[in-house]
Amino acid sequence: MTKDDAPKEGTKQLIDKMKATKEKWDAEAAASPDGPDETDQLLSQAISMALDQGRGWSSPEEREKYLETLLDDEFIPPLFAENEEELERSGLKDAFTTLHNEGETPGKNMLDFRKKGNESIALGRKNVAKNQQYYRDAVNHYYEAYHWARRITPKDEDFVPTVEELAAAEEDPYFTQKELDELSSIICSNCALAHMCLKNWGFVRDESKKAIDFDGKNIKAWYRLAKAHQILKNWEEAGDAIDSGLEMEKNNKELLALQKKLGEKVRKARLVRQQRDRARAERTSSIKEVWRYCKEEKISLGRVSLVATVKDDEEDDEGNEKMEAVWHHHYPHTGQLPKRQVQNGGKWTWPVLFVYPSHHQSDFIEHFGEDEIIAYRMAEMFPEQEDGETETEMPWDYNNEFRCSNLAVYFEVHCLDTELDSKRKPIIHPDSVERLNDQGSAMRFYESTRALKGDEGPEMATVARCMERKHLHHQRKAWIKKHGSLWAKPDPCPVVQVHPAATLGQVLRSKDMVVPNFLVTLTVYPIEHPAHKDFHKKHKCVGIVEPKEA
User: CA 269, CA 467: separation in Å to the nearest integer?
Assistant: First the structure.
């Protein structure tokens, strides 16, 4: 006998011993004056089943595999499974489902649970005390009916039942695909009705959609879908459901009454949507035009992160200082794009932000022409003092330092030239400016800014926020992988000084200039102010934009 035959021989001896013991117990029970009792009979049947169905393991490998399953930490015996996922992992889901409904077929179960659901709805309507439990029971029954409907295998359309199948149709009904879809639609529509009674309008919407997916001619499902959208204040969707339902049945009184009631709100919602679509199309056209112009003129564009956190509860931990980096805190300077002035010979204007860190002030110019000299604008904002004047016009300029001739102008160098030479995407700190390298990324960035401002509705704002958080998460992950911590921040970016006689166009075309967020940002300091000296200590000045002749 080989080593592999030993377990088989041991199993055969165990089976023979069990068989002999059973025969002995049966003989003792038969010889008893009272005869075999119920317990003896059950024990005898159990041993017979074990002998007939279980002849031991077919191989040592099968036995080891079963034992490994039992020793697995994630293995849960099916009897103790608390949900469908745990039952699925046990490998005995179908067996337990069959055991729970032994002798019943999916078709019969579907019809029975559908009937129970209808009865619960009827009882709920008759109940004087308005007990909501009837409708909850109805929802559960309809869910069970839908579950069994999904387990039915439909017959072909040309199916011809045999005599035996006709006789067994009451216990084992059969359905074609069309009949099954119609029944599934009715079940989902009735489930939506039960949810209506419970005022679960989100579920009413979802179940009505499922019903319509199965049967687009289910007029009740269309009405319930329209009613759900009405309560959820989705006016345009409600109007679409009403129109679709009336296409199926143009004289339906319930839909006509709802159409009359919601007509004005639906009209306004559709008008708003048309305006939003038109605005989106105009923005897309504008972004494409801006990108083409910047590419031709070699003007670099960049972006910042539109969110400061990657999860909701992070805001409480980071403090108010971190929140200052959030994009919407800088509105109304957002949303503005460079524009080509057709009436001015096709020249371009840019939104420009002048920042005065020494006094915590700023000025925003919506249209700053590329051919305008910086000093001219500065002279308009900060004119020189005339004879006899000792104070400037700005109430916040306590030391009267903001005069055009007394100011130094800079822009920050956000992206270094080495990034252009790198074949790999540069790893930047999440608080830094990221270069926009193609038209698609520029369009996605700008559309995200508008979505976060609410231009596309609350749903799209949520989607844009999630996408920006994902982008920020990848930036943080890459930076931490390279530098070990977000606190390992890069050195303060260098700056370039702007000669007052230079034009905005010359600043834009400087090799060191990257325009973040389509907004030219210039930093201005009084020359002799202490903050100007501190600024130079932190930021290295790497050049100057000199004026050039046209």
Answer: 27
> Alpha-carbon distance 515 to 436, whole Å?
10
Q: Is the dihedral of CA 273, 274, 278, 279 positive or negative?
A: negative
Query: Strand, coil or helix: what is 302?
Result: strand
Query: Backbone phi, then psi, for 258, in 5-degree steps?
Result: -70, -35
Query: Which amino acid makes up residue 456?
Result: E
The alpha-helical segments, DSSP class H, found in 382-433 are 418-421
- DSSP state letters, 7-47: HHHHHHHHHHHHHHHHHHHHHHHHHSTT---HHHHHHHHHH
Q: Half-sphere exposure of residue 108, counting CA atoms within 13 Å on the CB side?
A: 10
Which residues, in sequence order, are CB contacts of 447 under 8 Å at separation 6+?
A: 280, 283, 464
* pLDDT one digit per residue (tens) for the chain, 550 residues: 444 454 455 556 656 666 777 677 677 777 776 666 666 565 565 555 554 444 455 566 665 666 666 556 666 666 566 666 766 666 666 655 555 555 578 888 999 999 999 999 999 999 888 889 999 999 999 999 999 999 988 888 887 777 777 776 677 788 889 999 999 999 999 999 999 999 999 999 999 999 999 999 999 999 999 999 999 999 999 999 999 999 999 999 999 999 999 999 999 999 998 998 898 898 889 999 999 999 999 999 998 888 888 877 665 444 444 443 444 434 444 568 899 987 777 889 999 999 999 999 999 998 999 999 999 999 988 888 777 677 888 889 888 889 888 999 999 998 765 554 445 678 888 888 889 989 999 999 988 888 888 877 788 888 888 998 899 899 899 999 988 888 888 888 899 999 999 999 999 999 999 998 899 999 999 999 999 999 999 999 999 999 886 5
Of 201, 206, 416, 453, the residue nearest 300 (C-alpha) = 416
| Coil/strand/helix, residue 408 | strand
d(CA 222, CA 241): 6
Task: Give the pair of three-digit tokens for residue 473.
Answer: 């998460």
Closest CA to 100 of 120, 84, 118: 84
Instruction: Give the integer Cα–Cα distance in Å for 520 and 481.
Output: 32
Task: Identify whether the C-beta of residue 183 lies closer than 8 Å to the C-beta of residue 115.
Answer: no
183 CB burial (10 A radius; 0-12, 13-18, 19+): buried
Tokens 């389509």, residue?
Answer: 518
- Contact residues for 49 (Cβ-Cβ < 8 A; gap 6+): none
Cα(491)–Cα(93) distance, rounded to whole angstroms? 60
Instruction: Determine the number of helices (DSSP H) and then strands (DSSP E) in the chain.
Output: 21, 10
The secondary structure of 96-159 as a DSSP string is: HHHHHTTT--HHHHHHHHHHHHHHHHHHHHH-TT--THHHHHHHHHHHHHHHHHTT--PBPTT-
Cβ neighbours for 454, distance < 8 A, ≥ 6 positions apart = 461
Exposed, middle or buried, 307 (CB in 10 Å: 0-12/13-18/19+)? Answer: buried
Alpha-carbon dihedral of residues 110, 113, 117, 122, nearest 10 degrees? Answer: 110
**φ, ψ of residue 378 in degrees (nearest 5):** -60, -40
